[in-house]
């Protein structure tokens, strides 16, 4: 990769975004799991559920704090590294970010404090409401962030104003209910739920392998398996919705993910495995599953999914149309209020393709002076690098189906085998703890890298979005961020491991007394013949 301002700015933002996204999925899912556990506590009044709520809530709190620190840094980068992007689309992009800060983040942050310090100040029901407000606030934050990001993928509800040289919002309703944003939100949130479920299951499995905190571990594993199975199934279903949305909003991204060079007769096959060759523009040793891609992408057996070669030809036509828009724009900028009506009409006719003319600025200052070779090269620039998208998507999908299998197995053991688990299954649950983060990071990579060469798809090229910085500035800040984030990562892992090893340390005496009384009642009930015959304690792991 060439060390220029654009690529270094992309590297820096990718580094901070991917690092921040280490915390987001666990925050989303763990907030809901903790609220579920407290709901059971309020309904049953059993201290073990209060102890579980506090224990997993502590791990949620550690993760939440680190997520906030990295998220704030990432948002500041829009002004630092991407100032022209912020100027060009700030009226649209800034609105959901502002709402996220004023509504969702303040809600979440306020009630996080009440959650941790309000146990002895609030009633059970009041504290339960607080727990659910924390969970709702966490998910609201994700909603508004993904509305902003979804607009970058599918810029609806806005138009370019040639007099101000900026994008301006025309419909907040369209921005908010953008189909890409809604599909990304439910898919991302479900992935966060899976991440938290795998985390809780893995830590609980580790306790059971060690023979520690068995009551908490078995109950937590049951909650995680039930919640995780529903979430894992949702991820697949909602991921399919994202694929369908991409088939008509981001056709090039979908074609690149599938390494679909040519347009197939409907319904298109799904390439399960293969080796994309961008230079030869073909996929070697492709193993195709008939009809599947057509069903996923179009929900029909008759509609085609365009291949990369056809999409490049379409891009070339849009570049030529964009040059017409650029020519009219330059006349409007020169003549201002004296601009003839035909010129403005010409701009309105071609304005939807203006962004494609801006792509030419990578090769020529004035797109109107572009050669045929430059136009053709620019059309091919609209194709992202195929092989990393192809493999990242397939690894992500493979992990998604693996989570379904794991959660289904543990749900079965929890529900029909008395919460007993073979030691091999417990070891597997511990080993797969990192897997949801790998899947989530790959999903984020597919979404963002697949949009290139655009910052805002079809509107603003990445090459024009950066600030006027030097390579030295960026290298220095990248080194600083790497050092700072590495320190935060060590702190995060140290605190999480410390409290996992420590285990549930709150309400221990109260919980043990209640369990002892409960066992006595069970023995007395069994002794008089009124019990159900179950032992007081579940059998150990197999």
UniProtKB/TrEMBL annotation:
InterPro entries: Cyt-d_ubiquinol_oxidase_su_1 (IPR002585)
GO biological process terms on file: aerobic electron transport chain
Localization annotation: Cell inner membrane
Location, primary (coarse class): membrane
Transmembrane domains' residue ranges: 20-43, 55-72, 92-117, 129-152, 185-209, 221-239, 389-412, 424-447, 474-497
Cellular component annotations (GO), alphabetically ordered: cytochrome complex; plasma membrane
Keyword tags: Cell inner membrane, Cell membrane, Electron transport, Heme, Iron, Membrane, Metal-binding, Transmembrane, Transmembrane helix, Transport
Family, per entry: Belongs to the cytochrome ubiquinol oxidase subunit 1 family.
Name the record gives this protein: Cytochrome bd-I ubiquinol oxidase subunit CydA
The organism of origin for this protein: Pacificispira spongiicola
């Amino acid at each position: 990769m060439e060390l220029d301002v654009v690529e270094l700015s992309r590297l820096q933002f990718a580094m901070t975004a991917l690092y921040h996204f280490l915390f987001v999925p666990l925050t989303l899912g763990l907030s809901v799991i903790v609220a579920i556990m407290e709901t059971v506590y309020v309904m049953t009044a059993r201290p073990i559920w209060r102890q579980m709520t506090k224990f997993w809530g502590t791990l949620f709190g550690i993760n939440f704090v680190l997520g906030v620190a990295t998220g704030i840094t990432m948002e500041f980068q829009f002004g630092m590294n991407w100032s022209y992007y912020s100027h060009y689309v700030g009226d649209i992009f800034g609105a959901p970010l502002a709402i996220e800060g004023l509504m969702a983040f303040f809600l979440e942050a306020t009630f996080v404090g009440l959650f941790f310090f309000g146990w002895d100040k609030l009633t059970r029901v009041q504290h339960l409401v607080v727990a659910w407000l924390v969970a709702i606030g966490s998910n609201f934050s994700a909603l508004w962030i993904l509305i902003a990001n979804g607009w970058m993928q599918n810029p609806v509800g806005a138009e370019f104003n040639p007099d101000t040289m900026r994008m301006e919002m025309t419909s907040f309703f369209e921005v908010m209910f953008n189909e890409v944003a809604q599909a990304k939100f439910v898919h991302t949130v479900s992935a966060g739920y899976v991440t938290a479920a795998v985390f809780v299951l893995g830590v609980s499995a580790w306790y059971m392998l060690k023979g520690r905190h068995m009551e908490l571990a078995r109950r937590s594993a049951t909650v995680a398996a039930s919640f995780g199975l529903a979430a894992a199934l949702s991820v697949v279903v909602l991921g399919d919705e994202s694929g369908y949305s991409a088939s008509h909003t981001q056709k090039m991204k979908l074609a690149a993910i599938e390494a679909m060079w040519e347009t197939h007769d409907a319904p298109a096959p799904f390439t399960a495995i293969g080796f994309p060759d961008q230079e030869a523009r073909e996929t070697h040793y492709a193993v195709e599953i008939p009809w599947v891609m057509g069903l996923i992408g179009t929900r029909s057996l008759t509609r085609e999914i365009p291949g990369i070669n056809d999409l490049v030809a379409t891009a070339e036509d849009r570049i030529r149309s964009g040059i017409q828009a650029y020519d009219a724009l330059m006349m409007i900028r020169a003549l201002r209020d004296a601009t003839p009506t035909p010129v403005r009409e010409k701009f309105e006719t071609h304005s939807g393709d203006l962004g494609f003319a801006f792509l030419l600025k990578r090769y020529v200052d004035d797109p109107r002076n572009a050669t045929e070779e430059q136009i053709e090269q620019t059309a091919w620039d609209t194709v992202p690098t195929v092989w990393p998208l192809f493999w990242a998507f397939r690894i992500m999908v493979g992990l998604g189906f693996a989570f379904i299998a794991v959660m289904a197995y543990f749900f079965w053991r929890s529900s029909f085998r008395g919460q007993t688990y073979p030691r091999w299954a417990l070891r597997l649950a511990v080993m797969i703890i990192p897997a949801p983060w790998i899947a989530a990071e790959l999903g984020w990579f597919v979404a963002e890298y697949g949009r290139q060469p655009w910052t805002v798809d079809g509107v603003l090229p990445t090459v024009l979005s950066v600030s006027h910085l030097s390579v030295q500035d960026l290298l220095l800040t990248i080194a600083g961020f790497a050092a700072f984030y590495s320190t935060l990562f060590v702190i995060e892992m140290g605190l999480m491991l410390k409290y996992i090893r420590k285990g549930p340390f709150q309400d221990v005496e109260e919980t043990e007394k209640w369990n002892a009384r409960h066992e006595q009642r069970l023995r007395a009930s069994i002794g008089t013949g009124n019990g159900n015959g179950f032992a007081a304690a579940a059998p150990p792991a197999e």
